[in-house]
Amino acid sequence: MTFEEQGIYVRGTSGQEKVKCPQCSHQRKKGSDPCLSVNIDDGIWKCHHCGWKGGLKDKKRDTYVPTPIVKPEEPKTDLPDSVVEWFTGRGISLNTIISEGIGYNNRWIQFPFYKNGEVVNIKSRTADKKFRQEKNAEKCFYRFDHMRGMETIIITEGEMDALSLVECGYSNVVSCPDGAIAPNSVATDRKFSYLLSAEEELMGATTVILAMDDDPSGHAMRDELSRRIGREKCYRVTYPEGCKDMNDVLMEHGQDKVIDVITEAYPYPIDGVVTIGDVTEDAIDLLLKPDHNGLSTGWTGLDNFYRVSKGELTIVTGVPNMGKSEWMDALMINMIQDHSWKFGIFSAENFPVKHHLLKLVGKFSGRAFWGDEKLDEQTARNTMAVLDEYIKFIGTQEDNVTIESILEQAKILNFRYGLNGLIIDPWNTLEHKFRQSENETNYISRVLSTIVAFAKLHEIHIWVVAHPRKMEMDNNRKPVVPGAYDISGSSNFFNRADNIISVHRHKDEDDDYVGIHVSKIRFQYKNGRPGIGKLNYDIKNGKYYEYEQRDAEILFG
Amino acid sequence: MNTNKEMQKYYLDKLDKVECTTNHDYHIRKMRERFYEEFDEIWKKVKLGKATRQAWEKALNKWLKMESI
Question: Which residues of B touch A363 (CB under 8 A)?
Fold first, then answer.
């Protein structure tokens, strides 16, 4: 028996707590009064109001059970004159206050969050900008019901900005429940959990206007939202000088100016003509950032040749059996461990997924996943639990996986989890659908353009593993490292990619190492210069280490 | 026992049960440190009433899992 089965919801796992009584609280005038004393350690309780008491047979609960989502009651809407005056002083009329069901309780102004006609959350604020929300309430957009079925949705940072737009006649307005995010902070999934409930609405909309505050936090929020929703349909707004949000515009310039700001919203500069003015601020940001280099791959020996930046395409090639996929997996694990990157991965040659997962566990933990010294079950489980947050396998259910289907799944994953990297391994297992009268060269050019645009749009780094055209041998009958123009298909691989890498194992009597041959880097000022990096491979755990000259026998047996 | 003390007890109990490994891999150490810092931040926020107990517990479990790898 558990406390939950008795209708008692405690927050902790031990000690004494006072909570609502399931027997009498719902009938009482003071319904929120925590009249039931619960001793969690002894598993007993007593209500100080109705006298109900009892105990659990098995006493203390074994595990912590999350508190269920609570629906708050509708707020009282009889507002004192001073509150109405406060709103009208900010340009919000009594009609809007009434239509939006704004409430008031003991100096707190209450903004009810309606979803499917029911109040699911209440955000309260005081005049001096103190905020609070209902405990354990559902997270969703403020005015969620108003975004249903809308082709255009306007998203603001706060409730007052949303109300300012409602005041000016816009109905399709919502606002974020938790406001903005700190600049340079990690955009956690929890912070954006409210997006999940609005997935259908945001995916279905053709235009999303992001009217966040004009400050660093507002910009960070706008950028992350646009990244997840898809920049192709996101628009930005420009506020008149001296105004930082919609409510400021309404107060300073009136309704006509608010309408102007929305009417003049402009798309993210993703394609077509970009003026210098469009990108000046972004370029200055780049200039002023303390470190605008690409991220290290985790192997310092490669830092001079290849670093990873957002929104780029890297083509990885190499002779079969030289470890392209292995190195790709190792790079992904390093990016997860060092930079908390999240990945979507299509790896057809590693199906079924359970085998692939075990290989990744070995790389992550640095322990062998086979043989006598293989890692124990608990370590494997813990590793998988950690990896679960960072890796999503895609394209596993379909017979004919196309680039389009992979990008569609990646788009959804990005919306839900905020992807940073996408791996397509390998190119030749995809089903390539040529258009009428399209030859291979034109097809590759078109598809690579789509991939590059997707990478830039969503700021995701995409790696495509592609086989070389044919294996060439040198005079000693050893395979030659394939160059950038040797990739099977067309020279478009070289032209379209930002970076090109060949993975090649060099083995002779004196040495045995994996060469990372970087033959193209588009942005050399931040991502390194073409050259050869060396790594050692440990076959037991599948990890690559910084290069040390060793005999072939010691490493590979 | 107040909430803070209860959380401390819960934290110490959990810590006792964790078998920390001797894995000194650079990348794992880096990730461990990051998870610990995230947990520490959440604990500070819980004390200020800006984060929930659930988030605290999730961050704790995440960090401790990493300690045992």
Answer: none
A51-62 pLDDT, tens digit per residue, is 788 887 654 444
Q: Are A424 and A346 in contact (CB under 8 A)?
A: yes
Closest CA to A72 of A22, A20, A121: A121
Residue of A nearest to B10 (CA): A13
Measure the CA–CA gap between A254 and A555, rounded to whole angstroms. Answer: 74
Ranges of chain A with pLDDT below 50:
59-64, 555-557
- The C-alpha atoms of residue A407 and residue A419 are separated, in whole angstroms, by 12
Position A127: which residue type?
Answer: A
pTM of the model: 0.68
What is d(CA A405, CA A395) in angstroms, rounded to the nearest whole number?
8
Residues of chain B neighbouring A338 (CB-CB closer than 8 A): 27, 30-31
* Residue A212 buriedness (CB in 10 A; 0-12 / 13-18 / 19+): buried
Amino acid in the structure at residue A346: F
Q: Is B23 exposed, middle or buried (0-12, 13-18, 19+ CB in 10 A)?
A: middle
A337 and B6 in contact by Cβ < 8 A? Answer: no
* CB-based contact A520:A484 (threshold 8 Å): yes
**Tell me: the pLDDT tens digits for B12-38?**
888 888 877 777 788 999 999 999 999
**CB-based contact A238:A261 (threshold 8 Å):** yes
Q: Kind of pairing, strands A531-538 and A313-317?
A: unpaired
Q: How far is B30 from chain A (nearest CA, A)?
A: 6
A111 pairs with which residues across the strands? A123
